[in-house]
Description:
By secondary structure, this protein is α/β, with parallel strands linked by helices. It folds into three domains: 20-249, Rossmann fold, CATH 3.40.50.2000; 282-443, 3-Layer(aba) Sandwich (Rossmann fold); 477-504. The chain is built from 20 helices and 14 strands. The chain has helices at residues 2-16, 37-52, 78-88, 92-96, 100-120, 122-129, 150-154, 169-175, 197-230, 234-241, 282-289, 311-323, 352-357, 370-379, 392-402, 415-427, 429-443, 449-462, 478-481, 484-519, and strands at residues 27-31, 56-62, 72-77, 137-141, 158-163, 244-249, 265-267, 295-299, 327-331, 340-341, 344-347, 361-366, 383-385, 405-407. Strands 3-2-1-4-5-6-7 form a seven-stranded parallel beta sheet, with helices on both faces. Strand 8 (295-299), helix 12 and strand 9 form a beta-alpha-beta unit. The longest helix is centred in the last third of the chain and has 36 residues, at 484-519. It is globular, with a radius of gyration of 28 Å.
Amino acid sequence: MRFIIAWLPLSLCLIFGMDVNSVEAANILGIFPYRHSSTYTVIQPLVKELVGKGHNLTVITPSHISPNIEGVRHIRVDLLHKHLHDLMNSNQLIEFFRDKWREAVFAATFLANTSAAILSDDGVQKMLSDKSERFDMIMIETCQLDAVYGLAEYYNATLVGVSYIRLNWSVDELAGNPAPSVYEPISPMGFSLDSSILSRIYNWIYITEEKLLDRLLIRPAQLRIFKKFFGYSEQKMEELRSRFSVILVNNHFSFGRVRSNVPNIIEIAGIHLSEPPEPCGQELQRFLDEAEHGVIYFSLGFDIMLKFLPQDILQPLLKSFSRIKQRVVWKTDDTTTPNQTGNIYRMAKTPQRMILSHPNTRLFITHGGLLSLIEAIDSGVPMLGIPFFFDQFDNLHKIQQAGMARVLDTPSPSVDTITDTIRDLIEEPKYSQRAKEMSFIFRDRPISPLDSAVWWIEYALRHRNASLMRINESDISFMVYYKLGDLLPLYIRIGAILIFVIFISRRLIKKHSTSNLTHT
């Protein structure tokens, strides 16, 4: 009888198809403030899947970013669109990447304007004033918008982060992952990419400066907005930084450097690949199919338009293309040149995933944007990197170290250098072989990135205690983390010996000086 009673709950689950990991439909507020289309490309499949699972999604984004998602309540913030549009169409963007200290001041202002634009928006204010509104989860990009974290306290909601770019020390802090690193700055401008002792010391100073700038410039600006809109204290803002239950990161260990993570850092790189790729048109398909010697795909992403590409890079590239036998598909905003000239096919908007997955594609020339790298790795295509700013340098150098890419670090590469590099990447089989190996490793997972992301979001809804999967500073001090207490007896002994040696040395010197005075 006891046996039957013990097995009754499991039997009912099997009979009625009940899922022991199921979670009730939740109200989720997503805040994705950047106009960058790549960011939204990562978020879109996740939002669609959560809606498909029965959850109620409200998403705050800039206006004019993408079509509405069916079943989602959209709050479009016009001021975000204006700020970002003005930035992308001004010379400030170039100045932003020229000096690290100027960059920090600019970033503090930009991030403060972003937080203020979100919280002051009429649609957001209407939502906040509606007493019937409730949210079980706040899902936000981990982009130093500390003032907006106040929404989690306001609604007593679980806090989940989404990091579009690679991990850095700032995301580590939010995740409760205090593992020390000299390799993950926020801004890699002027950051050393080699692993020598001097470089590590330099990088430690570099990241320490970043942390100082964060505390002196960025957080105080966020705190003023935090107090203005919510009336909470500085202590509350710091507490909210430790409330992140799960952080989804657009990363995968196969990209290069393996790192130690606490359990709440979930790698979801490739989540956007769950969306169906844009098909090729007939003309482009024919151009790819008939490429006897293969195809080179050349794209510098969405934000680096032709007008920003330096002529000392563009002209050698074009001359190099005329020397090689492969066909070239070039994503370019140049609308004055005919669509196809010689072996070059020009397009303003390309079906990138279909081009990279085509069997005739031999090489991808890229600026090193993270989504572009993910798509090339997924398709097993070697890369030639031309990084311009931000995370592109680190992204490409990791892939170069992994053996499936080469990077043009020279500011003004010659035609011969570019041509020889292209031929080496295409003709040397080691690059193609390594690319295929990385593709296999990247794809070989127990579940898809999208399924993983949804499972962990629902896990965070089921288990609201954020401390379960993080290392909080209150749990492990600096002394304990580095085991300095264990070394304290040794330090005392060494200190005592040094004091004794100094004391004896001073006595001997003094005695010697007195002896010399006596003789004189």
